[in-house]
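Sorry to interrupt, but I need a hand with the structure work. Could you add the entry underneath, on a fresh line?
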Amino acid sequence: MSSSEFLSYVPIFSDLPIETLKMIENIGTRKMYKKNDVVLMEEEAGTALFVIINGKVKVARSSTDGREVILTILSESDFFGEMAILDGLTRSATVTAIEESELFLIQRNDFLNLLREYPEISISLLQELTKRLRSADAKIKALSLKDAEGKVATVVLQLADDIGKIKHGKVEIEKLPLQQDLANMAGTSRETISRTLHTFAKKGLIELDGSKLSILDYEKFKEKFI
């Protein structure tokens, strides 16, 4: 798939004509990252916008005591790095490939020129940023107020929304992150993640099959924990 074809699936570019997508393809570059490669570091200068062609990355920050706190996991058609481009400040988080990933990079000046020339990109970007802010607010509320089951459920729902796929009436997460990564997302321990997921399975809320997790009734699961 060419970059122009792929870019049509990226929310901030999806309303652009194919001629414009081809132009964007020409000003950007593709780059491969191996599993565990650091794509960008927290506090470094922001020089590019990144779009995921394929693969997955985790977005994380370091707590004051040195622990990793995973903010989200991004996959195909997602983008990141826009905050440092827009405000000119340093990166707010570290992004690491959690599997082999191919990314499309647009340099800061080129992206800012796109925003000036194509207002529809700016509108779509604002919509995406608002969506992310609402999601972050909901997660902060859930992780600060809920018990262990509520925290783990919040992370499962986030992953379902971010990388899950509907199949035969179920929402399937094909490659569940490592339990330690889930713990870092939920602000709890790996043992709590393991225990809670198996409790959910015993209650018939989810199915576990190796690294795959299926939510048997997404709406019921969401209603129970949100």
Q: What stands out?
A: The longest helix spans residues 119-145. The two ends are 38 Å apart (CA to CA).
